Amino acid sequence: MRERFTEALKEAVKSQDKIRISTLRLITAAIKDRDIAARGADRGDGATDEQVLEILAKMVKQRHEAAATYEEAGRLELAEQELAEIAVIEEFLPTQLSDEEITVAVNQAIAETEAATLKDMGKVMGVLKSKYAGQMDFGKAGGQVKAQLG
Fold first, then answer.
1. For 17-56, how does the pLDDT look when each residue is reduced to its tens digit (9 = 90+)?
2. Average pLDDT of the segment spanning 60-70
3. Which of 20, 62, 88, 127 is 20 to 30 Å from 28 by CA-CA measure?
4. What residue numbers bound the domain in which 7 lies?
5. Could you tell me if 111 and 42 lie in one domain?
6. Domains in the chain: how many in total?
């Protein structure tokens, strides 16, 4: 995945796409931060592809929240910039699961973990996060798990 970011950054610099350049630099900086944290804690060479997907998903969520805040404040140009950054980040994420696919995945995870009560929610979410990192909205999935177990 790192090679994809490097190549995309080179292409963005050549085409002088400022938003794409800044977004890709933010992504690589976040990955380097995770690498440094992993090395400092003696957990291997750096961020895995799964961790990179988590970083990207977190970045998308942060930008959605920022865009909503900017829209409420009437700062539409800043909201548009956040949305443009989201589009760049999402290019590197796997295809997102639909609501129906999330429901199927939640049902499978509940069956797999033999979850019966809300106390088992952590196990179910752990299975979902390990299998579907970067592919689903875990807020929606958590709501469905809670509804089924509660």
1. 999 999 999 999 999 998 888 777 666 667 788 888 888 9
2. 94
3. 127
4. 2-90
5. no
6. 2
10 and 83 both lie in a single domain: yes
Residues 84 and 108 reside in one and the same domain: no
Q: In this predicted model, what pLDDT tens digit does every residue of 112-126 receive, in sequence order?
A: 999 888 898 999 999
Same domain, 111 and 145: yes
Q: Indicate whether 37 and 105 sit together in one domain.
A: no
CA dist., res. 23 & res. 37, Å (int):
21
How many Å apart are CA 18 and CA 59, to the nearest integer? Answer: 18
State the SS3 of the chain: CHHHHHHHHHHHHHHCCHHHHHHHHHHHHHHHHHHHHHHHCCCCCCCCHHHHHHHHHHHHHHHHHHHHHHHHCCCHHHHHHHHHHHHHHHCCCCCCCCHHHHHHHHHHHHHHHCCCCHHHHHHHHHHHHHHCCCCCCHHHHHHHHHHHHC
According to the model, what pLDDT value does residue 59 have? 93
Contacts of residue 83, defined as CB under 8 A and 6 or more positions apart, other chains included, come to 63, 67
Question: Can you read off the two tokens belonging to residue 69?
Answer: 């805040």
